[in-house]
């Protein structure tokens, strides 16, 4: 099969590799769509802190956002059969430890991330193998395009859940990438009375409002604190979703959130935080939560897609044939004004 193998930062090779063999509980899936994440790009360029720390092992096949069809199943697989439409989890657990047997796959000490850290070979290929416990049926009526965005949607939902957004809350969302935009949507669906999105690109800020944000602040022309003091959040900010990757916005969040509030950060910063007001965090009883992954969020996201409550396809702003993956990765470095999600068509 054809696969994009990353041998080192900047050294991605489209090449022929053997189709993986199946163990009894494995499923071979033909990839139909895959999405390029900012993490994929940072690993490709070498800017990711995980590359610098050695957590990314080369060579590997990237790609953790995907949808496809079942091509073949292992001898003990009963939940899926050839032709089923599926999406896959972002990690692969050992399936044998106590945590796995309890269903807590994300707590497995031997887990591998799909296409990223200590990688299980990912979806930038013709086929991907996944254990059946890490696959989910793609509902009828939900497109392969939407299926490739289940992973970022599930991560965004988990970020909102970890922020503990409640009915009547005022929620501030830093960042207008896919996860920030989807977080604004899920915050509103979770009962937030007011959602304020923050970014620097007018196209994306308008998209944030289409996704449910009540206000959108362009940091290029406004001071965020001044905007909030002007009456946009008269009762203060209850929850902050930090999806921008900006250390400045992360630091500001401590001053902006109410005492007893929650900051949920889903961004990677790729460098240490030089100064963080930990005394403010402690004295104000603020909760700071990091979010990586999407524990248990695939089923609700797929249900929301199936009912039409969640439409993610407006996030797709560019498409490339899989053979043009190098051009697709290169596109992430330019035209940020109108770029949200880049999709590969396999």
Q: What are the defining features of this structure?
A:
346 residues, alpha/beta, Quinone Oxidoreductase, Chain A, domain 1, Rossmann fold, 2 domains, 7-stranded mixed beta sheet, 6-stranded parallel beta sheet, 12 helices, 27% strand, globular
Overview of this protein structure:
- This protein is an alpha/beta fold.
- It has two domains: 2-149 and 312-345, Medium-chain alcohol dehydrogenases, catalytic domain (Quinone Oxidoreductase, Chain A, domain 1), CATH 3.90.180; 155-290, NAD(P)-binding Rossmann-like Domain (Rossmann fold).
- Helices cover 28% and strands 27% of the residues.
- It is built from twelve helices and 17 strands.
- The chain has helices at residues 38-45, 49-53, 98-101, 144-147, 150-163, 178-189, 202-210, 224-232, 247-256, 278-283, 298-306, 325-331; strands at residues 2-8, 11-16, 26-36, 65-73, 85-88, 91-92, 112-113, 127-131, 135-137, 170-174, 194-199, 215-218, 237-242, 257-265, 287-290, 316-321, 341-345.
- The strands form four sheets. Strands 3, 4, 5, 8, 9, 16 and 17 form a seven-stranded mixed β-sheet that branches. A six-stranded parallel β-sheet has the order 12-11-10-13-14-15, sandwiched between helices.
- Helix 6 links the parallel strand 10 and strand 11.
- The longest helix has 14 residues, at 150-163.
- The chain is globular, with a radius of gyration of 20 Å.
- The mean pLDDT is 93.
């Amino acid at each position: 099969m054809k696969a994009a193998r990353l041998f080192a930062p900047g050294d991605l090779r489209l090449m022929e590799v053997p189709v993986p063999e199946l163990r009894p509980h494995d499923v071979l899936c033909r990839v139909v769509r895959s999405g390029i994440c900012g993490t994929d790009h940072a690993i490709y360029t070498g800017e990711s802190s995980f590359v610098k720390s050695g957590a990314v092992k080369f060579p590997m096949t990237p790609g953790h956002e995907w949808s496809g069809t079942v091509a073949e199943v292992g001898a003990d697989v009963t939940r899926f059969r050839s032709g089923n439409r599926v999406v896959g989890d972002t990690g692969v657990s050992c399936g044998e430890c106590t945590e796995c047997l309890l269903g807590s796959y994300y707590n497995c000490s031997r887990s591998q991330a799909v296409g990223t850290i200590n990688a299980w070979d990912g979806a930038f290929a013709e086929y991907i193998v996944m254990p059946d416990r890490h696959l989910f049926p793609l509902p009828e009526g939900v497109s392969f395009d939407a299926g490739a965005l289940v992973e970022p949607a599930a991560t965004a939902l988990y970020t909102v859940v970890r922020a503990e957004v409640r009915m009547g809350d005022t929620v501030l969302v830093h960042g207008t990438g896919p996860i920030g935009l989807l977080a604004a949507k899920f915050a509103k669906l979770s009962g937030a009375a007011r959602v304020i999105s923050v970014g620097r690109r007018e196209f994306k800020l308008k998209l944030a409002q289409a996704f449910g944000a009540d206000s959108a602040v362009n940091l290029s022309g406004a001071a965020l604190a001044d905007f909030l003091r002007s009456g946009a959040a008269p009762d203060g900010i209850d929850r902050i979703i930090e999806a921008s990757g900006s250390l400045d916005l992360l630091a500001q969040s401590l001053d902006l959130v109410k005492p007893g509030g929650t900051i949920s950060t889903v961004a990677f910063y790729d460098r240490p935080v030089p100064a963080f007001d930990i005394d403010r965090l402690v004295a104000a009883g603020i909760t700071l939560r990091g979010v990586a992954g999407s524990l248990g969020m695939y089923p609700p996201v797929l249900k929301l897609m199936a009912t039409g409550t969640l439409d993610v396809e407006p996030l797709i702003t560019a498409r490339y044939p899989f053979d043009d993956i190098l051009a697709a990765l290169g596109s992430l470095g330019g035209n940020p004004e109108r770029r949200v999600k880049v999709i590969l068509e396999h």
